[in-house]
Each structure stands twice: as C-alpha cells, then as structure tokens.
Design a protein that fits this description.
Length: about 100
C-alpha cells in the first residue's frame, strides 16, 4: 500500500516538519508566519506573471512568435500530458 506524498515528502515527514515549526515559532505565531509566506508566494507569482506577460508582449510586437501556433502546440502538449497521467495513474492503481 502506497502512502500519499506531497513533493516527495510523506505524511510522517510533514508531521515532523510541522512539529519543528511549532517548536521554533510557537503556536500563537503560526498564523502570522503562514500569512507572511502566503503574501511572499503571491508576490513571487505576480512578478513571474508580469515577466511572462512582458516577454510575450515583446515577442508579439517583434513578430517572433505566432500566437496561434503556440496555442496549438500548448494544446497538444496538454493532451499528451493528460494521456500520460491517465496511463501512469492506471499503472499505479494496478500495483
């Protein structure tokens, strides 16, 4: 029987990490720490999206990429990814 993992970390490791975090920060500081991490991750995601938008905009203006071709390629990649996930999911269930 396989245990579910998150980022290659099992349940026992997650509990141990949470225990260490509670010891270091204290239970009353956890909401603040989580809020700060959430804001930091949001800022990073927004910055990444801004950079992606600027690169795409610049490429469109320079006629470097054909957006229709890029969308078709992305659709094909997503289709293949879904098929691989379906196939690998059926293999994992059969073990």
């Amino acid at each position: 029987m396989q245990h579910p993992t998150l980022l290659f970390i099992g349940g026992t490791e997650i509990v141990f990490i949470l225990f260490i975090v509670v010891l270091v920060f204290g239970a009353d500081k956890l909401p603040e720490v989580a809020r700060g991490l959430g804001k930091g991750m949001r800022t990073l995601k927004d910055a990444t999206n801004d950079i992606k938008h600027e690169v795409t905009k610049s490429a469109k203006e320079s006629n470097i990429i054909d957006t229709d071709a890029a969308k078709d390629i992305q659709q094909q990649v997503n289709k293949i990814k879904d098929e691989v996930e379906d196939f690998s999911g059926s293999i994992k269930r059969n073990k």
